[in-house]
Write a structure and sequence with these properties.
It is a single chain. By secondary structure, the protein is mainly alpha-helical. 58% of the residues lie in helices and 3% in strands. The protein is built from 7 helices and 2 strands; from the N terminus they run αααααββαα. A two-stranded antiparallel sheet has the order 1-2. β1 and β2 form a beta hairpin. The N and C termini lie far apart (33 Å).
Length: 116
Amino acid sequence: MGNEKVYQMDFSKIYGLLVNKAVKKGRTKEEVDEVICWLTGYSKEALHGMAEKPATYGEFFRNAPKMNEKRSLIKGVVCGVRVEDIEDPLMRDIRYLDKLVDELAKGKGMDKILRV
């Protein structure tokens, strides 16, 4: 799937998928929210507001209040691609979120996920 297609996806649908993925593995919506807020700088209220209005996935990341500086510590493979090797900064940030939710779903502790 091309980057532009990903950027144009509806954020509320993606958010629902991320929550469902974690919940199916015994994690909570609150933990998903914490991971998203840590990465993007959104408050939980602002995150839920973005999920309730029409916004694309690209807009969600482009309008993020403050991307976490520690996100460069996120390493690993998502969809067969090493996140740290993705050249497009917007796509890299999107894949960072995918990786964090993967780690959450796999049962990693929040301190490790949030690189504390």
